[in-house]
Amino acid sequence: MRTDGRKHDELRPIKITPGYLHHPTGSVLIECGLTRVICSATVANEVPPWMRAQKIKGGWITAEYQLLPTSTHERVKRERKGVSGRTQEIQRLIGRSLRASCDLSKLEGKTIYIDCDVLDADGGTRCASISGAMVALKIAVNKLLVNGSIKEDPIINNIAAVSVGVIDDTAILDLCYSEDCGAEVDMNIIMTDKNEFVEIQGTAEWKTFTRNKMNEMLDIAEKGINNIFKVQEDVI
Predict the structure, then answer these.
(1) Rounded CA separation 106/108 (Å)
(2) What is the pLDDT of residue 1?
(3) How far apart are CA 139 and CA 135, in angstroms?
(4) What is the dotted CATH code of the domain comprising 14-235?
């Protein structure tokens, strides 16, 4: 039994509130236990310079991620002079994941900017950001279809993400901060609703792990992600 009473393969309570911000084309507040992230999708009629230079048709999706100063136990300094390596790695992960959900050729000269701002961090912020941003992206795309800004729906996959790990040789799902700090193995899994992997990030923090243990983690991750898909679908 875990400190919060969950079973080893049980998610924290998840809540997604759509339309959380007034100005973005799409936005949500996602809450995974005590982790809370605002995810928004803003549409601009532009594409990156490299796409124009190479005369690539379609559009683009890119992401930014930020821990707000009071989101953690100790105040986080604002990244005024450039983002940290951790922040850069996470926002690239979010961007890659969201691009895997779309046929970019159908975005017709548009860039969708995904912003993920962490209000409270209690573990799994990158996974919560991806799962929440997917809903914000869907809301934005639906608005583009309704107002005729794009002709076809570019969404080809639903995307969700969850963390898994190993503590005391037991595979556990959706680690909170205290579990993450002490985990022997830490892994983030991003999947489509076709049961295909977008990305697997796994590290032996304190102890190496076997192929069988990895399979255990992948199994409970798939179960958890399928439950996240249900929450996302209920919102849309």
Answers:
(1) 5
(2) 59
(3) 6
(4) 3.30.230.70
